[in-house]
Amino acid sequence: MTELETEVKLLKKELHDQKKIHDRLDIAIEKLTDVSNSIHRMLAVHEEKLTRQEEAIFQ
């Protein structure tokens, strides 16, 4: 095997490894986005509950 063929094979392996890393990063970003959205909804619900409690106290 020539040096060029070896380099090409190494580059192909590196490219494949990079693709796996990118795929895993995409999945992680999707999960973080889901968590962020869930936290946002949860905070909105709690804020609404606090607002209702404050209104009940001051009425």
From TrEMBL:
InterPro entries: DUF7201. It holds the Pfam family DUF7201. Residues 5-56 form the DUF7201 domain. This is DUF7201 domain-containing protein. It comes from marine metagenome.
